[in-house]
Design goal:
By secondary structure, the protein is of the alpha/beta class. This is Kynureninase.
Length: 424
């Protein structure tokens, strides 16, 4: 399709968009009494209007049933997480038994590393990407310290080539081959938070396992954003947060994936009573008997009030389907890219998009170097109703989330951006 940088063209695209009506199912902040253009769904998704009803249901059950809500609420609390199995399995490409919801992201990655990072002899090293999200970096450092290794010896970062913004797949595979029988674990972010680069999960997983390592993925920026086939790709484990592309609310519960090949294994885990045999959980038995599947990694009583908004979101995803989301994601991201290039022609500043141009290597994010611009332009955008994200030294991250961003939003952003530059 040949794009045009006009309001009429953007509105025409919206009129043909099968997901356009979903904008009305979200609550938008306002700036200057006008609905914002929201580009930070890669940090915190907007609140779906249906969320309140799901929370109110739990609050009403608590008020009317108190402790009996565990068994007699409309959605009994004692197995509340089981309602996620079917819709989440479709979002991440898993069997229903391979997914569960609990805790928060880094907590779950730590817990999963108990099972899947088992350094022994010369096999103790972890491969991750350079400039991983800081929480992952801290996790790796503390994990290897716990096992008695030095981070500088045990953590192997795959680096970008000089002058390049993204990591080449060939360099990932070469590093895995180089570390070889010293490699215990590969754990990479499925989508790099800074550049928006999407990694080839299938190929990297196979390469890591070929040399005898376990392979896991931090899917914080991937779940609900890219096409995942975790079961078929033979991924050992994964975890993700729910508050970015899945709109569950700030700091909310994390999802976990454990491949079925590990469900009957004797992998170590930190146990708790919510992972105990469901039918015998309330018999208070002294010996742990794990639930079969990913639910066997549960530990504590569920935070049902946190899970309620997440359930509202995954049921919306079930209505829409990942294929429809990805189709619009690719199209609206391409339109945003076009708008940026068009505005670039009209101003003296230069925009450098550091997210890969190949649609197979990007998702709902464009990270843009604003050469010749500084923090003042970001402040101008925010004051004029464009909610975006700033990363030093002069990068803005733009996430045109397909559920609630419109093509007209992309056009309006371009006009505001141009005015902010020309009006200096």
């Amino acid at each position: 399709m040949t794009f045009q940088n006009t309001r009429e063209f953007a509105r025409e695209l919206d009129s043909k968009d099968a997901l356009n009506d979903y904008q009305e199912q979200f609550i938008f902040p306002k700036v200057n009494d006008k609905r914002v253009i929201y580009f930070t769904g890669n940090s915190l998704g907007l609140q779906p209007k249906r969320t309140k009803a799901y929370i109110d249901e739990v609050m009403n059950d608590w008020a009317e049933l108190a402790v009996e809500g565990h068994f007699y609420a409309e959605k009994p609390w004692w197995d509340y997480q089981e309602r996620f199995a079917e819709p989440l399995s479709k979002i991440v490409g898993a069997l229903p038994s391979e997914v569960t919801v609990m805790n928060t992201l880094t907590v779950n990655l730590h817990l999963l590393m108990v099972s899947f990072y088992q350094p022994k002899g010369k096999r103790y090293k972890i491969i991750c990407e350079e400039k991983a999200f800081p929480s992952d970096q801290y996790m790796f450092q503390s994990q290897v310290n716990f096992h008695g290794y030095k981070p500088e010896d045990a953590i192997v970062e795959i680096k970008r080539r000089e002058g390049e913004h993204n990591i080449r797949l060939e360099d990932v595979l070469a590093k895995i081959e180089e570390v070889g029988d010293e490699l215990a674990l590969v754990l990479i972010g499925g989508v790099n938070y800074y550049t928006g680069q999407v990694f080839d999960i299938k190929t990297i997983t196979a390469a890591g396992q070929k040399v005898g390592a376990k392979v896991g993925w931090d899917l914080a920026h991937a779940a609900g954003n890219i096409k995942l086939e975790l079961h078929d790709w033979n991924v050992d484990f994964a975890a993700w947060c729910s508050y970015k592309y899945m709109n569950s609310g700030p700091g909310n519960a994390s999802g976990c994936f454990v491949h079925e090949k590990h469900h009957n294994s004797d992998l170590p885990r930190f146990a708790g009573w919510w992972g105990h045999n469901k039918e015998r959980r309330f018999k208070m038995e002294p010996t742990f008997d794990p639930v079969h599947g990913a639910d066997g990694w549960q530990i504590s009583n569920l935070p049902v009030l946190s899970l309620a908004p997440y359930l509202a979101s995954v049921e919306m995803f079930a209505e829409v389907g990942m294929d429809a989301l990805i189709k619009k994601r690719d199209h609206i991201t391409s339109y945003l890219e076009f708008i940026l290039h068009e505005i670039d022609k009209e101003v003296e500043s230069t925009f450098e998009i550091i997210t890969p141009s190949n649609p197979e290597e990007r998702a709902s994010q464009l990270s843009v170097f604003l050469h010749g611009e500084g923090r003042a332009l970001f402040d101008y955008l925010m004051k004029n109703g464009v909610i975006t994200d700033w990363r030093e030294p002069n990068v803005i991250r733009l996430a045109p989330v397909p559920l609630y961003c419109s093509y007209e939003d992309m056009y309006d952003f371009g006009q505001i951006l141009k005015k902010g530059i020309l009006g200096k």
